[in-house]
Amino acid sequence: MYTYRRKFFSYKVPFFSWGEGFGLEAELRERVSRSILLKVELRKFQSKTMRNLLDYLILQLLKDQSMHGYGVLSALRDRYGYYAASSVIYSLLSTFEKKKYVKSMLEARDGKSRKTYSITSKGRTILDFEEEFLNHIVKLANFKVRKRR
């Protein structure tokens, strides 16, 4: 506050600066920060959901065609916008191979050998179960949302 003094009286006038103003800038700053925080929280939620669905997404990709690890990584990025670490993808593929959900074959191209993964009948069964389960969850969620309205 700035005190404005005259001969017989004095009164206080708010001191305006770029950061304070009439309170509009503070309100705008607060809205922007809330918006940014909301976007960050939504992105975290999306990332967590994608991580939880990663096994389903990988099996879904392998159902369409056989792929090598980097192909799975690229397809996740292109189709779903999820940037997974290669160590996560390769460890999941290794786990799937141990559980017999996928099988791998060494394939040689241009003097390089790559491990190509394809889904097995057991993997298809797991994928079908996960699809039914996810559809059931979505139906329950839609029913409860409609019921509240």
Describe this structure in words.
The protein has helices at 24-52, 54-64, 69-80, 86-98, 121-148, and strands at residues 2-5, 10-13, 67-68, 102-109, 112-119. The protein is of the alpha+beta class. The two termini are 49 Å apart. A hairpin with a 2-residue loop joins β4 (102-109) and β5 (112-119). Helices cover 62% and strands 17% of the residues. The protein is built from five helices and five strands. The longest helix is centred in the first third of the chain and has 29 residues, at 24-52. The protein folds into two domains: 13-52; 53-149, Winged helix-like DNA-binding domain superfamily/Winged helix DNA-binding domain (Arc Repressor Mutant, subunit A, Orthogonal Bundle). The strands form two sheets. Strands 3-5-4 form a three-stranded antiparallel β-sheet. It has a two-stranded antiparallel sheet with strand order 1-2. Residues 1-22 have low confidence and may be disordered.
Name a few traits of the molecule.
disordered N terminus; flat; alpha+beta; 149 residues; 17% strand; Arc Repressor Mutant, subunit A; two-stranded antiparallel sheet
Largest sheet: number of strands, sense, barrel closure:
3 strands, antiparallel
Count of individual beta strands: 5
| Order of neighbouring strands in the sheet with most strands | 3-5-4
N- and C-termini, Cα separation: 49 Å
Class inferred from helices and paired strands: alpha+beta
Mean of residue pLDDT values: 79
Low-confidence stretches: 1-22
CATH homologous superfamily designation of the largest domain: Winged helix-like DNA-binding domain superfamily/Winged helix DNA-binding domain
Shape: flat
Number of domains: 2
